[in-house]
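Quick one - inputs below.
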Amino acid sequence: MDDVSHLLDELNDAQREAVTMGSNHCLVLAGAGSGKTRVLVHRIAWAIQVQHASPLSILAVTFTNKAASEMRGRVESLLQIPTSGLWIGTFHGICNRMLRLHASEAGLNPTFQILDSDDQFRLIRRTIREMQLDEGEFPPRQVQGFINARKDDGVRPDHIEHHGNPLTEQMVEIYRRYQAACERSSLVDFAELLLRTLELLRDNPTRQAHYQQRFAHVMIDEFQDTNSLQYALVRLLCGSDSQLFVVGDDDQSIYGWRGAKVENVQHFVDDYKPQVVRLEQNYRSTATILEAANRVIDHNDDRMGKNLWTDGEQGDPVRVFSAYNEDEEAEFIIGRIQDWLDSGRNPSEVGVLYRSNAQSRLFEQALLRADIPYRVYGGLRFFERAEIKDALAYLRLVHNPLDDAAFERVVNVPARGIGERTVAHLREAARASNQSLWDCSRHQLASGSLPGRARNALGVFVDLVAGLKQQHDETDLGGIMHRIIEQTELIQHYRARETSDRAEARQENLDELIRATENYEQSIEDEQAGLSPMASFLTQAALEAGEHQGEKWQDCVQLMTLHSAKGLEFPLVFMAGMEEGLFPHQKSVEEPGRLSEERRLAYVGMTRAMELLFLSYAESRRLHGQTLFGRPSRFVSELPPALVEDIRPRLQVSTARAPRQTNDGLPNLGSRVRHAKFGDGTVLTVEGQGDNARIQINFDDAGSKWLVFGYAALDRIA
DNA sequence: GTGCGACGATTTTAG
DNA sequence: ATCGTCGCAC
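Output:
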């Protein structure tokens, strides 16, 4: 046997057990910071070098492109071989690959284009409008959620029971028509990528047998994030001789709201009887931080059980800061960051985490004032920006004139006098003749059945795209992209409509897009699948929307939501806005089962911290234009007091929390009161005087109510 | 076809 | 407070 010590040297016992697992299926319950990526990478290497598995027999699935490319890179450097034979990718990437290879068997045009969620939204909205339904009654967002949820459950329109419920019946009809529109134009949305692949394998025994035989080693990362469809797909991909190696952490399941099923971890145990390995040694955080996080997550009663430990240092206590308001909170955090920098540490070692994006603004302003560089995660990514999508819509039309979604997007961008009436006429004619909007436009122009003005305008558009199509034969991808941006006059369009710096940014992005097409090299797989560089580029753009903010890889303080912090680590972490209603979020408190997910989110946040962890909350906070008086998050009180250092004990300073009684006996804003029926609450508003005063109280359990002071019989409580 | 004011909603998000 | 969408007037 080859010397394989390099595969095992740096592993602890549990990690080694997982990596060297024999013929059994394996479930690795990998706690935060316990080295799960290392285990996955070494497992792949082990399969190839020790079990002599062919690289072609390996399928490794992740949730993000970032995780996939990191894994690929690490396997490559560990094995010192190129990894092009291995299937490492996201569920969507892998499904895309299979569908391209077997397009006709899956009932698809091999040049199908992928719809991102924005494209999908627009197409659904248009479908609703075309059906002359009321968008108030059928909000496109909701319908989109409905359709995706059905697809995630593997359900097609014909299989939905509407039980005579007219609302459901309509929803199903929208689903049906949306799907028909997709198929007419060879468009595939994200959920469809998975569902089609599932159906392909399910209904095609030859293909199924082929892949089941081929993939002898199937590895799945972040298994707690899989939805029903993904688990069904995993089950179809694994044959009786395949080994499943599944890594996950039920305590880090924070995506239940978008369909992820933690239960899949238990299902996997039941279905495959895997050997279970727990990775509980943490290499990231101090003992104090770890213990505090353990104690918080311990309040959940639906855990598989796991207790992280470390042989590292005790470290500093967890610091809890009680701010008077959100401004003071931000000020405090920036002060501590300044201390950190003054002690010679770097901005990029600092993570400021919050529950919702709206909270970022305060920190941005404060950091700006303090002249500390920062980077905000979230927002639109490169290929999601409007100007990029506009330009790509032209590219899509050149690539596939049947793409009605692309046609609709840019037929009047820049405005060229093709109004809603003309487009409606085209849609109607297209539907009547069962044609694409593009073909229909050409016929309408030829037959002269359009009013003069519309005819001219549409003629300009058709000539433009037709001209570009023609030029496509003479030039490469970069060349055609360049000409698209030049000839469509998109830049002039933004210039005329928007402020100069906004237009400037769009121009830069479009320049960047040209550069990206010029430098684009399609993968060998895409080439083998017979994809043109253009088709390959469009697929990539849809599948990998790109970095949130390019180039900003400087030394920056990192601002992000708790969700996007998953998988990252920082020596210094702030968790801001630790208030009931904000975190845990009000909506999660109301729905049963959601609270434990919020607690897992708190756990994820805390376990991001390596050396120092600060939690902070504000006693009063302006939100949606009004001032709210919150209480500290329950997660704060779940911390073991021995590990906590209160930076400002509430008794000391708090004005909002120690309200004086006014002369007329009315409670002050922000004070806590008890009502016989509604329970405890916080006074939000006081109007009028004496017994006739109307008081708005936000009750902890009963919600916000208006009461007349004289009748309400309120007791003040501490 | 564009511009403006009213209106409403406002957790988290990768592919 | 703020942002996006809708309807209406020019």
